[in-house]
Amino acid sequence: MLDVLARFANGVSRFASLLASLAAAVLTLAMVYEVFARYVFDAPTAWAFDIAYMSNGAVFLLGMAYVLREDGHIRIDVLRNRLPARVNDAVQGVAYLLILAPFFGVLSWIALSHSWRAWVRQEVETVSPWAPLMWPFYLLIAIGLIAMTLQLAAEGLRAFAGQRASATKEH
């Protein structure tokens, strides 16, 4: 069961990271175009700011589960390095599975609710002259949060089982 959940969580994290890569490419292209349009043609775009904050936010939220999967988050190991491995695993299991996964699960539900409401109401960004639809941005947030929730659950179960994340990663 653990292997099935871990494979599923890893797959969702990988999919989210691919979306993050796409969002980074969109951000880069939009900023290059904006600089070119602004300084060469003296014609700034109405949409560059919106694309920038949406893409940048999406990159971070969509990438965080993959970073957890790869054990790339920064942490302070002063206390952790002095504890026995079983204690470390138990602390990590409790933190990931019983504290953080439920918290991110609630955030995921809220983000999905916002996405659905924005889609139904055709909500637009009200302070933007471009006024883009908001549901795609909210949906990317929800996907990132769901991926993080699943990855936290998988890593928490791995910790309780005494398995190192690096031993079960798929590339």
From TrEMBL:
Localisation: Cell inner membrane
Main localization, broad class: membrane
Coiled-coil regions listed in the entry: none
UniProt xrefs under InterPro entries: DctQ, TRAP_DctQ
GO CC term, one of those recorded: plasma membrane
Keywords noted in UniProt: Cell inner membrane, Cell membrane, Membrane, Transmembrane, Transmembrane helix, Transport
Pfam families, per database record: DctQ
Domain of life: Bacteria
Gene Ontology MF term list: transmembrane transporter activity
Biological process terms in GO annotation: C4-dicarboxylate transport
Function, in words: Part of the tripartite ATP-independent periplasmic (TRAP) transport system.
Subunit structure: The complex comprises the extracytoplasmic solute receptor protein and the two transmembrane proteins.
Record-given protein name: TRAP transporter small permease protein
Organism encoding this protein: Achromobacter pulmonis
